[in-house]
Amino acid sequence: MKFIVAPSIFSSDFFRLSEEISKVESIKDSWLHIDIMDGNFVPQISFGSAITKTIRKHTDKVIDVHLMVKNLEREIELFSETGANYITFHSEETHFPLRMIKKIKSYGIKAGISINPFTKLDYVDFILPYIDLLLIMSVEPGFSGQKFITETKNKIEKAKFIRRDKGLNFLISVDGGVCEENALQIIEAGADILVMGSYFFKNNFEEIKTFIETLRKKLTK
């Protein structure tokens, strides 16, 4: 059972950003998760398309841009020029998700949709055949360091069942509070991608790397 680790750059040490990205690059099957916050959809402000474009110049890793913003159409257009591989937006922010998906794909970029912890999966059920990635938030978006909301596990399992039952092929990504204590359960529930923030960047890196390698070995037995 394979899984992807997608460390969230928002939780990294910005002063040593190149070193932090190098850590991600040393991890097998890893992506870069870039949280974009405008201070409107969530209270926090992170960074914009210029920083994302700069990161792209210095890594070949898959980049998933996670838009937690208002004015989606404008932001999708801006981030289409950054070299992102995926652009993921929040279902709660638009009444026109299919339009957003088509706009993202018109730039040759894969499209993802995200749901907050207390947004039911049924809310996006109709759009699942059109997406490449489903991002399930397991904490309230906007702040790092929160604890995993355990009820999210049921949503991951349901998404896995729907994908299998309908013959779909979107990836399931889980974002928020992912750590050593719950990573295995999240993968077994159906997650393909583990977005790690504080856990990845705020702890001893060699220990994190060893844990990820041990987890991979355990899942291949």
- Low-pLDDT runs: none
In the sheet with the most strands, the strands line up as 1-8-7-6-5-4-3-2
How many distinct beta strands? 8
Name the CATH superfamily classification.
Aldolase class I
Query: How many distinct helices?
Result: 8
What average pLDDT do the residues reach? 94
Structural class call reads alpha/beta
H/E order of the elements?
EHEHEHEHEEHEHEHH
Strand content: 15-25%
In whole angstroms, how far apart are the ends? 9 Å
CATH architecture: Alpha-Beta Barrel
Residue share in helix? 25-40%
Say what the CATH topology is: TIM Barrel
Biggest sheet details: 8 strands, parallel
CATH class wording: Alpha Beta
Shape: globular
Quick description:
The protein has helices at 17-25, 49-57, 72-79, 97-106, 152-166, 183-189, 198-201, 205-220, and strands at 4-7, 31-37, 62-68, 86-90, 110-115, 133-137, 171-175, 193-196.
Structure description:
This protein has 221 residues and is an alpha/beta fold. It has a single domain, classed as Alpha-Beta Barrel (TIM Barrel), CATH 3.20.20.70. Helix content is 35%, strand content 19%. The protein has helices at residues 17-25, 49-57, 72-79, 97-106, 152-166, 183-189, 198-201, 205-220; strands spanning 4-7, 31-37, 62-68, 86-90, 110-115, 133-137, 171-175, 193-196. The radius of gyration is 16 Å and the shape is globular. It starts with a strand and ends with a helix.
Salient structural properties:
single chain, 221 residues, TIM Barrel, 8 helices
Topology:
Layout: E1 4-7, H1 17-25, E2 31-37, H2 49-57, E3 62-68, H3 72-79, E4 86-90, H4 97-106, E5 110-115, E6 133-137, H5 152-166, E7 171-175, H6 183-189, E8 193-196, H7 198-201, H8 205-220
Parallel strand pairs: 1-8, 2-3, 3-4, 4-5, 5-6, 6-7, 7-8
